[in-house]
Specification:
256 residues
């Protein structure tokens, strides 16, 4: 874990492995530590670079990020400062939304795009669960195929956190997520119209047991991004990165 200074703000960046760089943007849970998914990608010859999205525990607060556009621009600057060349983007959940926006705004900067159970769209008849109104345990039950396992799944991913309180970490993560996606709720009304100019080779991966974002969103992403394809994981919910790291790394690694 290193600290990067970007335009006067501090961003912590986790790196794992060596070889071809891949940028990973984390989910609403803020996982960027020593998770098996990173290890599995590293074993295939990739170096995973995972910045902590501003506002999440470990990076500076979101005081000056008043609009979604501020966040997208800043994340683009983080990757630019990392000086990785034309790099693939892999994003999960909230991070998938951010990766999708980056691929639409700056398609010439990125090589490929992987979206994993991503927020970002509003789909008629496929309502996204309100993650800000229910209890954390309700959200875990809906997010994961086995909601009771979140603590153990997140533990290695949060070793960098300067607190042993998982609840405090997740509260801060929800606060940061709300700053980005409170209103409009967890989507960008302009994104659907812009996706046609993405132009990146795109893989959409979806855990079909996700109780937060229905599978119809994967199909909508695919219909809007030319040439993209969808891979369903029937044993996973909202975060396949934590739930079935090995299978996901095989799918993503083959695509990359």
């Amino acid at each position: 874990m290193t600290t990067l200074s970007v335009d006067g703000k501090s961003v912590r960046v986790f790196q794992f492995g060596s070889g071809k760089p891949v940028v990973y943007l984390h989910s609403i849970f803020g996982e960027v530590g020593e998770i098996p998914f990173f290890e599995a990608l590293a074993s295939r010859g990739y170096r995973v670079i995972a910045p902590i999205i501003p506002g999440f525990p470990g990076s500076d607060h979101l005081d000056n990020f008043l609009k979604l556009e501020d966040m997208i621009y800043f994340l683009g600057r983080v990757i630019e400062v990392l000086d990785l060349g034309r790099v693939p983007l892999v994003g999960s959940s909230l991070g998938g939304w951010m990766a999708c926006e980056l691929g639409t705004w700056f398609p010439d900067r990125y090589e490929k795009l992987v979206l994993i159970n991503s927020f970002g769209l509003r789909v008629e008849g496929a309502r996204v669960y309100d993650i800000f109104r229910g209890s954390q345990h309700q959200m875990w039950d809906l997010a994961l195929a086995n909601g009771d396992g979140l603590d153990s799944l997140l533990e290695p991913a949060l070793k960098f956190v300067d607190s042993d309180s998982l609840k405090l970490h997740l509260f801060s993560a929800m606060e940061a997520t709300a700053a980005i996606g409170w209103n409009p709720y967890m989507h960008d009304p302009r994104l659907a119209d812009r996706l046609g100019r993405c132009g990146l080779d795109t893989l959409i991966v979806w855990g079909t047991l996700d109780g937060i974002i229905p599978l119809a969103h994967a199909e909508q992403f695919s219909s809007l991004i030319d040439g993209s394809r969808v891979v369903e994981i029937s044993t996973c919910g909202h975060v396949p990165v934590l739930e079935d790291s090995e299978f996901l790394a095989n799918v993503v690694g083959d695509f990359l």
